[in-house]
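Q: Hi! First time doing this. I have a protein sequence and I read that you can turn it into a structure. Is that right? Here it is:
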Amino acid sequence: MSSVHNKTDVILIGAGVMSATLGSILKELAPDWTIKVFEKLEGPGEESSNEWNNAGTGHAALCELNYTSEKPDGSIEVGKAIKVNEQFQISRQFWSYLVERRLIRNPQDFIMPIPHMSLVQGDNNVAFLKKRFEALSNNPLFQGMEFSDDPVKLKEWIPLVMEGRTSNEPMAATKIDSGTDVNFGALSRMLFDHLKKRNVEINYKHSVKDIKRASDGSWDVKVHNISSGRTEHHHAKFVFIGGGGGSLPLLQKTGIPESKRIGGFPVSGLFLVCNNPKVIEQHHAKVYGKAKVGAPPMSVPHLDTRYIDKKKSLLFGPFAGFSPKFLKTGSNFDLIGSVKPNNLLTMLAAGMKEMALTKYLIQQVMLSNEKRMVELREFIPSAKSEDWSIVVAGQRVQVIKDTEAGKGTLQFGTEVVSAADGSVAALLGASPGASTAVHVMLEVLERCFPQHMAGWEPKIREMIPSYGISLSKNPELFREIDRTTAQTLGLSGKVPAYN
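A: Yes, that's right. Below is the predicted 3D structure, encoded as structure tokens:
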């Protein structure tokens, strides 16, 4: 059966943190615009944004070593780290705005203060970390960062990691207390509750099957209503595709030139989760190590304190794996179905170039639980197998495209692809993803609604005081924003004693 529905101004595909963020920003900038959301699952934040499907790190480059690289002359490149941190500050400002105006409440349900640490072993890595610390610590965004290679100090910072350690190999760590743990699933649910109150039509159990250009330049979105079995057609002037790993196949259906010669490579993940409260209580930090040779940056090993369902948790991972699905709830034909005549050579070139990654993924898939425990014991020497169990994390689809670096280059990060006329945009890629959602959605607005930006700018500045300003170059403004957002979001006080 088929039915035709009325036109709307905006359609958001996917009920994750990206659509939630874009919808929330648009409702502040253009409150009269009509918005519809389509999500194939039963509720918001169930796929990539779900708290069990990502690391929950408020990615601000405080601890992630892959955002700082060593140049041939031995100096440290910190440009990307500063950029990622500034983008996270934009998210904090917008969340603070929503809390201040009581559009969302109880920020402690989605963001908590957690120290962020980097931990390395071996002379060369210790030297690298010290140079990284020196390069970052003078920047206002990284003020408060500490460095130590003293085992006594490290035992004070990370007792669980240092307990029972017999190796004499040099170790060092950096620590900064302004880090956060973010529950993007809880945030997504809060934002969709807010949007519902603002008369946004949210349709769960609705799977988007096709997106076609209509004769008037708008978009006809074909939707399968899973509950009724009916096919629906919805028309919109603007469509945003925020379906996580499922965005690429939908972008391809639009047929826009910008969707050509782009491929996707799915990477799945597993975490070890601790089920012993005594062990959980001995650790309070997010501790990031260095990625192994051939591993994608998203596979950097880390030992994370998390707050999920108001309960303190401890996770270690991720262990990478391979599945041809683009979503946890996807199809085994997703990968092969995404290969088109226009991206076949791009995909083949990536396959040839990424042999090390392929080898790494095969090794990861073959790991037994005991081998995973061996990797965990590099962080926690005293870890017992009976205290840990496996949780399957979300699917990520890394973008593959032709760049100046060559054909079939694997991209790490988050990328917006939009039509020349700005009528459709899609979000592809992975980390830092959700942490930089507000920055990314502002980029969508700048690309797709340039004619409105001048009129919207005063409201954007009200929501995000640093909009268009480099905080790293304006330390006084940063300190003021950091103080007010920390206060509003409850990050300046003590962590509640959840148990």
